[in-house]
């Protein structure tokens, strides 16, 4: 690619969330534009890559779709270590999955890369009738923890591209060098810095 | 024990005791001759009573010391069953008593309703017992009809694999459901505190009471300083296997041998270890009431597929693996790149087609047990998730190291062919991905993937392709298998079409001892329906069990005739041959035919076996 000024960014992205929240469905919609009603349980982790063009850069996502099953939890650090971005997925029709998502956020804030771009996805947004987690509740939680929140539906493709696109926009452009003092701090401060720079 | 009345003990035969079997084909053919002569000399008396059931039951008597401190009465399984259950009621209180009473019912119902089936498998009984059942049974029957219709195309083994739907059936059932009680074969995994971990049918959580009952039986006997291995109750066998804090139980009225049912429990345990490792024991050390079932979340399909394979995959009782037939040069090319990959720090690299090996390689001194291979391919084939993209998953090989996880990179090149790369390093994903790209390049260059598809389409060895003597074929087709009551359409077809290969040979399995591999012929007429195939495998399993009976020592040959088959088994230090003939096949001809089969397999050994697979020859 000889496009001048364009940067190629490789970004490792990890999806975390409870069993059946729809991680694999989101990825398959994003990468292959496919959806199956009864997605089989993921074993270990599945690897995908997908490239997105965002304004000034081409972002190549290396996506780790992790298994939500309890037995794989101890392996999660293997996948989120060094990740530039994470999507924490919950199912809006399942309160427990939202609680599980909060635990993942805590874990990432404590253990993950402090510059990580974190997104909270309230998936299955097409199932409005069965909603158990209100958009306000999730939005409030996201703001408190400096994540950005979107309700998605892998089934109808609502907001699926958008959430990946938004992440791509928020990724720090020159990863290693741009590291002002404030960014080193975990969670709150670092993420607000990201917010202020991108959400004009 | 009838099975042994027809088999000749190995006695002091020097060949049999030869600890260093020669692999030279030249000496082999000599051996074939001499073996055959000895076969003729020591021709065993035939067993033509047709009672397969006899050896099912007979086998277990040899395990007398293991057979619980129950009672000496061997005549009535019922008595045994009651003894245990009464004891149990004392130990486990009211709930236990209730469960035990309920558990007793199916035994009586089954025994009362069904006349003893004359067929070897007991599978016919399954249909008989479906009288009071629901629409779920219809679904079962329908799927079998599909299989039957598809049979005309030839590749039946793979077709019934394809028609079989993975995943757990009948989840709505529990031990109070009549349909649940009538199932022919149950498998349970539970913890030593009685918590359910897995059940083949029904929701584990609803079966908590039943699990507690099983636990109570086991711990009652253990408290007496003994171990319960088998309880017989009429047609039912209850087989127990204790693996530390994990208990496995099979309740079956399928007339399979105790040894094989126990082997199935072993494999079930192995599958669990493959998913979780044996370090799971530590969770029970910390907390005896640990609930393990959530840890197996999403693996129902893996277990149900394994249970299904007990009735179609000979690897489950032969403890050997099988290869996809493919040109020697292609297998070599695949082997070379796999070997290279292993040299770069990969522990095992395997190129597989469904459950069959195309080629495999291992790092130096690393050896892969055929059972591990079976469990691994079952795990991958039954998990749809591996097909969506590249996967990287922790797995444990129970025979290699039950304590530790390996990391498996799995990638499907097409619907059937996939590569598995196993490593000890959790950070090796990108390296393995590179290895896969290198392998893929070789496969594309040598056109292996399309040759694999061709091999699938063509199928394996066929009995019809063996040298044919038409006169005997005529005779064979006139006799057919009328003893087998498999229902209308099947029987009509069987009679209308000629049967099998020359001399009434219907099917064979040849197992090479030193390669740890077997080759089985494609199913041909008249063994076409899934039911008939299952029944033949059950007959082989019994043959295998009686040939490897520990109590009576290894045997060399067995010739057995009943109304379904004539079975001939021949065991040498180099190979084992299991062959099924028309029930009216001529014995001398059958023996000649076995010799021909062995010769034929030797002629084709470079195509049907993986030669020089270093991991196995250590």
UniProtKB/TrEMBL annotation, chain A:
GO BP annotations listed: protein transport; vacuolar transport
SMART domains: RAB, RAN, RAS, RHO
CDD domains per UniProt: Rab5_related
Keyword Lipoprotein: yes
SUPFAM superfamilies attached to this UniProt entry: P-loop containing nucleoside triphosphate hydrolases
Membrane topology, record value: Lipid-anchor
InterPro entries given in the database record: P-loop_NTPase, Small_GTP-bd, Small_GTPase
UniProt subcellular location: Endosome membrane; Prevacuolar compartment membrane
Keyword Membrane (UniProt): yes
Pfam families (alphabetical): Ras
GO terms assigned for molecular function: GTP binding; GTPase activity
Alphabetical keyword list: GTP-binding, Lipoprotein, Membrane, Nucleotide-binding, Prenylation, Protein transport, Transport
GO cellular component term of the entry, any: endosome membrane
Family of this protein: Belongs to the small GTPase superfamily. Rab family.
PANTHER family: PTHR47978
Protein name as catalogued: Uncharacterized protein
UniProtKB/TrEMBL annotation, chain B:
Pfam families cross-referenced by the UniProt entry: Fuz_longin_1 (PF19036), Fuz_longin_2 (PF19037), Fuz_longin_3 (PF19038)
Record-level GO BP terms: protein targeting to vacuole; vesicle-mediated transport
Region spans: Disordered: 1-168, 473-493
Start and end residues of each FUZ/MON1/HPS1 third Longin domain: 504-603
Similarity-based family: Belongs to the MON1/SAND family.
Biased composition (Polar residues): 20-45, 475-484
Listed Basic and acidic residues bias regions: 83-108
Biological function: Plays an important role in membrane trafficking through the secretory apparatus.
Taxonomic superkingdom: Eukaryota
Organism: Arabis nemorensis
PANTHER family registered for this protein in UniProt: SAND PROTEIN-RELATED (PTHR13027), VACUOLAR FUSION PROTEIN MON1 HOMOLOG (PTHR13027:SF7)
Domain FUZ/MON1/HPS1 first Longin residues, every copy: 185-306
Lineage, highest ranks first: Eukaryota, Viridiplantae, Streptophyta, Embryophyta, Tracheophyta
Protein name: Vacuolar fusion protein MON1 homolog
Extent of Low complexity compositional bias: 1-13
FUZ/MON1/HPS1 second Longin domain segment(s): 345-438
